[in-house]
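User: Please fill in residues for this 238-position structure.
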């Protein structure tokens, strides 16, 4: 992997792993920014991120099908009676986009769209990517990950893309074209606003030249923290 290779090159072999890791993580500007996503995918999965080829008839066909599905998805979900209009949190809306895109793409001749299986052969909705599209004639694979964002936010620095490499739950099992499709929505007024969700545009993005950065953090659960042997005092409310 990228991280382990960099650590091995920059640290004496005799140092404990954590002592090698920390200085490397702190050297954020040099090592952890601008990492090609294609390298991350290849180093963690052994699979290639293929470039979208606008001169390839298969790629043209799939891009056209995705475009039509995006138009129809936005039309359906913008409707006053759509299921998303009763949802307050935008994070809970995204699964409706995934489901609708999957339905529409499966109705397209020569295409098959499903939720990708993990390396363990299980369906897992969370994690990258959300959808796997196959052109049945050529067997060329396309991964599609829908994202929702508020108008005016494409230039923000907030993290909106996540990829967590894990062997068992890895869902990238093919050499494939990788797409993000971002749907822009108008902001709602206030946290509990009753105004409708209105999506105004979408962008289909080829990730072959995409660059990412690593945000390292050490985590622990409540079970890890509140161990009986570690508690030194406690109290109860009246």
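Assistant: Residues filled in for all 238 positions:
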């Amino acid at each position: 992997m990228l991280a382990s290779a960099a650590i091995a090159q920059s640290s004496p072999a005799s140092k404990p792993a954590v002592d090698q890791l920390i200085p490397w993580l702190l050297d954020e500007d040099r090592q952890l920014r601008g990492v090609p996503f294609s390298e991350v995918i290849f180093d963690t999965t052994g699979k290639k991120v293929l470039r979208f080829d606008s001169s390839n008839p298969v790629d043209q066909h799939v891009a056209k099908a995705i475009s039509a599905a995006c138009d129809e998805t936005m039309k359906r979900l913008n409707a006053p009676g759509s299921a998303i209009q009763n949802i307050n949190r935008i994070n809970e809306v995204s699964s409706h986009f995934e489901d609708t895109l999957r339905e529409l793409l499966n109705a397209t001749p020569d295409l098959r769209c499903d939720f990708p299986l993990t390396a363990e052969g299980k369906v897992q909705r969370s994690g990258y990517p959300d959808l796997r599209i196959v052109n049945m004639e050529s067997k060329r694979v396309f991964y599609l990950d829908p994202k929702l964002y508020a108008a005016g936010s494409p230039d923000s620095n907030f993290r909106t893309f996540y990829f967590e490499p894990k062997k068992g739950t890895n869902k990238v099992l093919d050499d494939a074209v990788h797409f993000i499709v971002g749907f822009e929505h108008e902001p709602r007024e206030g946290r509990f606003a009753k105004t409708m969700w209105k999506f105004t545009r979408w962008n289909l993005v080829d990730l072959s030249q995409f660059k990412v950065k690593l945000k390292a953090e050490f985590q622990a659960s409540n079970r890890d923290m509140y161990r009986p042997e570690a508690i030194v005092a406690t109290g109860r409310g009246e």
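For context: Residues 4-12 have pLDDT under 50 and may be disordered.
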